[in-house]
Amino acid sequence: MSADPFGTEALRESVLAAWRGSPTRFREDANAEEDLRLGGYRDRLLVELAQNASDAAGDAPGVLRLSVVDGELRAANTGAPLDAAGVAALASLRASSKTADTVGQFGVGFAAVLAVTDAPRVVSRSGAVAFSATRTREAVPALASARGGDVPVLRLVWPSDESDVPDGFDTEVRLPLRSVDGPALLAEFAEQVPDLLLALPGLRRVEVGEQAWDRTEADGVVVLTGPGGAQRWLVHRVGGELPEALVAGVESRPQWSACWAWPMDEPPAGDVLHAPTPTDEKLSLPARLIATLPVEPSRRRVLAGAAATFVLQEAAAAYPDLVAKLPAVERTSLVPLPGFPLSEVDDRLRTGVLAALRSASWLPLADGEWAAPSTAKVLDLASFDLVELLEDVIPGLLDYELTLPPHAKALAALEVPRLGVSEVVSALAGVGGDPSWWHQVYDALSPVADVDSTAREAMGGLPVPLVDGRLVSSPRGVLVGTDTELFSVSGLRIAHPEAAHPLLLRLGGTEAGPAELLDSDAVREAVHRSLDDPALDGPELVRTVLRLVSRAGGRPWLSELALPSADGEWRRADELVLPDSALLAVLESDAPFGVLDAEVAAEWPRSVLADVGVIDGFTVVEDDSPTEPDHDLADEGYWWDAFDVPPTRVLGIRDLDLVARDKWPQALAMMAADPVAWRAVSEPDGYTSWWLARYATIDGVPLGSWRLPDAEALEGLYDVVPPIGLPPHVLAAAGVRTSLSVVDSDDVTDLIARLGDPARKLSDALVLRVHAELAEVADSVSVEPPDRVRVLTGAAEPADDVLVLDLPWLLGVLPPAQVLASSGAAAELAELLALPLASEEVSGAVVGEGDEVVWSELGAVRLACDLLGVDLPGGSVIVHDDLVVAAESAEHSVSWWVDETVVHAADTPEGLARALAWTAGRWDDRHTFAALIADPTPAVLLG
After folding, report:
1. Contact by Cβ (8 Å): 891, 881
2. C-alpha to C-alpha distance for 287 and 262, rounded to whole angstroms
C-alpha cells in the first residue's frame, strides 16, 4: 500500500500555500474551529459519529461500536472505507464529499471531535490519516506563535501507518481524550443511543462499552431493543428530490426525506426536531419528526430558507398518513392540542399538521367510512345507540367512540363541529323512517332529557310519526300510547303505537289512554258537530266514541253525540230512550224524546249507551259547584229562589215535567228502585223532593198536599194519601207530609188556604202551630190576603171581621169569633194576613174606683213570687172587687186591664196573676202565678 494513499501531502501543501499567501485565511480557519470548539460541541459528538457511520453503511444498515481503549475514544463502524474524497472533506471546513443522495459522510460535522481531542485519527481498511495540533504548530510556527499556539487542527492531514481495524468493522475513528472522563463519556453516549438509532435507519446496531442496542423495522414499526427492554415506534416516511427552483445551478438535485415517529409504548414527552439527529428546535407535537433539513453550522438550529420551508410543508402534509396507521379510536391522540408553540419551527409545523389533518380523510364515521375533519360532525351526546340511529341521517357523523370525553380536545383543535340536542332535532326535521326507528331515537334521547332541562326544551321540536302516516313537527298535543283500533276521528294527532315512548309525554304529548283520547279536543269537536252531517261521519264516529266510552266511561258533553233513532232520524243522545226502557211507560205521549235505533241498542251494553246520555231511566244531574240555575231542570229557578243563599250543590232528576200525571206511582217506584235516582230523591233540601212535592200528583193532587197515615198531628190540615203500593219512606221522600213544615211562599199560600177552608176540622192546637209557623216566615214571603181565617172559636170566619190580638187584656172585651187563633207574633201575622191589630181597633176605660195596693203588701203575691224565685215588681196595682171596662159600646167584666201605664186587676187569683205576670215581664208564667196566688204552697208548685 502507498505510504500516502489519499494524497495528504498535496492537501497539506495547498492549505499551507493558502495560509502563507494570506495570513487572514489562517486566522479565519482558526477562528472557525475555535467557534465550534468553544460552542460546547461535545453533546454533538456521538450524533456526528453515528451520522457518519450511518452514511458509510450505504444500503445495508451498519453497526457502530463505541469504546475507550488506552485513553482513546474509539468509534468503529461498518460500511464504505475511507477514500480520498472523504479525507479531503475531513480536511476542509467548507467542503463535503457527500453525494446527492446522502445526508452526510464526514464533512464539517467531524469538527465535533475537537470537543474531546486535538489529535484525531481515522483508521480504515483503505488506509489511515491523522490530524494533530502539535504537528500543525510545527508546520507554521510563526502563524501559530501569532495566535499564542492556537491553530486549526482539522486543516492539515497526515498519512498514518495504522492498519489494525477491529474485526468485523471497516473504519475506526480514534480520539485521544483530552481532560475527559472516558467512562462518563460512554455513559452519556448510552443515554443518546435509542434516539439516534430511531433517527438513523442506516444503523442497525450500536454498542457502547459492554452495552448494545439493536434496531429492527417491519410493517412501519421500528423496534429498539437495548438493556432496558424494547421500545416500539410507529413510523411513516416520505421523501424525494428538492424542487429545481430551490437548488438552481446544482447538477444533481439533493434528496430530502422526512420520517414521523410515534412512541407506541409510552406517552410522548417533550421532544425536539431531528435533522436527522437532535437539534435544539423544541417541538410540542405528539410525534417526532426526523427530516433532512438544512441546519446552521452548529447543527443546533434549522437554517431558515425556502428548502427548509419546503421540507417542513411536505412533512406536515404526510402527518395524516402516520395518523391513519393507528387504530381508528386512537388516532385523535396524535392531534396537536391547542397551546403556545415552543419554537418558530414548532409553530410552522403545528399549523401545517393541523391543516393537513383537517383536509385528510382519516376519522372513522358511524357508517364505517372515513371522513376529513372539515366535513365531519361529532355528536355531543355519548350515546352509542343514537349515533347508530343517526348515521344515515347526518352526513359525516363520526363514530360513537369519538363522542367520548378523551377525544373532545382533539376534535375541537380540528374544528369538528359538535352536534347538541338542538342540532340533532334540526337534522331530524322532515326525516322519514319506520315508527320503530323513531321509538329508538326517543329511547336514546330519553336519558339526556332526564338530566338536562335545556336539552329537554330543545327536544320539543322532535318530529313524531302519526298513526295516519303523517309526520308532525312536535310532540306537543300528540296523543301517545293508544290502541290503534280506536283511531277514527278526523283531526286527531296520535303517535304511531310503534313510535310511542314516555319521552313524548314529557315533551308535551298527552297520554292517550281511552280517557285522554276521549277528552281530546278533536273528539269533543267531532261530537259537538256530529249533527251537522251525521250521514257522512255518523256511523264511524258512533263506533269510535262508544268504544272509547266502554273503556273510559262517560262525560256530560257526550250527550251531544248524534245517534240514529228508530224512525231513521239522527238525534242527540240525551233525546233518545232505549227501546226497552221502563221510562217509556211513564212519559207523556208527546214527550220530546225519540227511541234509539234497535240495532245500535243491541250492539252496545246499555251502560255504555247510558254513559253518552241515552235515556234508560230517570236522568240525574249533579253539580257540586253550581253558580246559577242552569241545569235544564224543570222549574229549577223557583227552587233556587227558595233559599236565602244559593245552594252549594245540585242533585236533581231531569225531565220530571214529562211524566204523565196518572203515571206517578210507577214513576216513583222506578226512582226508588234506581240507587242513583233515589239519592237525588232523598237529598236533604234537594231539588227533586221539592219538585215532586209540588208537581207530582196522586189522583190529581200534588204529593205535598197529602200526609202519611201516621202523621196524625196533621189531621184535618192534610188528607191521608191514598194507597198506591209504595212504602211510607218513599212517599215521605217524594214530599208526602209527615210533619208541619213551611219551605217557601207556596207552602204559606197553601196553609193559609187550608186554615180558611170551613170544611176542614182542625184542632185548636194545630191552628196555633200553623199560625206560629206562618209567623216564622212572615217577613220573607208575600201572599194574597185570605178571604177567611181561623179564629178562637175554631171556625173559619171572614177575614174582614177578624183582629189579631196584640195586647192580651183586650181579649176580655172582644168576642172569640173576632180574634185570630194565634199566640204571639201579632204584628207579623197581621202583616202577612193583612188583618188589623186589636190595639188599633179597640179602646176602653175602667168604670169605677179601685184600691191602689203596693205589690209587696199582697201576701199571696209575695209568697208566689218567692216560690217562683221572681223579684216582686215595684210600684202598685189598682185592685177592684169587680173590674168593669167600657168598650165597644158596652160594659165588660174583665179580670185585668192596663190603662195607659196603670195596671188594674180584679181581686181574683186570675186577675192578680195576669197583672203580676205582665208587670214582672213573666207573661208565660201567668197560669202558674194564678195557681200559687190561690194556694201559695210548695205542693201546688210541685204538683
Report:
1. no
2. 5
